[in-house]
Automatic annotation (TrEMBL):
This is Helix-hairpin-helix domain-containing protein. SMART domains: HhH1. Residues 30-49, 57-76 form the Helix-hairpin-helix DNA-binding motif class domain. Transmembrane segments: none annotated. InterPro entries: Hlx-hairpin-Hlx_DNA-bd_motif, RuvA_2-like. The keyword NADP does not apply. It comes from Pelomonas caseinilytica. Keywords: Signal. The keyword Secreted does not apply. Residues 1-20 form the signal peptide.
Length: 94
């Protein structure tokens, strides 16, 4: 019985625990600043450089974002054109 209740609770909470995804082209300043490693200065650079064609474009035009940071941001839910880093042309694989 306890296990069943725990499973029901976990199923009910899953949507609340799901990782939020934000697109770099439409995310608010607050959304961007909620990502690990993104403070006010980097959020401002992202906002000022929009729109981005793809991850390669973002990395080329936003100082401070190279492949390692792009991977970290993508893992935290940032998307460019709906795509995770490395998932499409313009997104470095690996």
């Amino acid at each position: 019985m306890k296990r069943r209740l725990l499973l029901l609770w976990a199923a009910a909470m899953a949507p609340a625990l799901a990782q939020a995804e934000f697109d770099a082209n439409t995310a608010s300043r607050a959304d961007l600043e909620s990502l690990p490693g993104v403070g006010p200065a980097l959020a401002q650079r992202l906002l000022a450089a929009r729109p981005f064609e793809d991850w390669a474009d973002l990395m080329r035009r936003v100082p401070g974002i190279k492949a390692a940071m792009a991977r970290k941001l993508s893992a935290a839910g940032l998307r460019v054109g709906g795509r995770a880093f490395g998932s499409a042309p313009g997104g470095e694989a690996g």
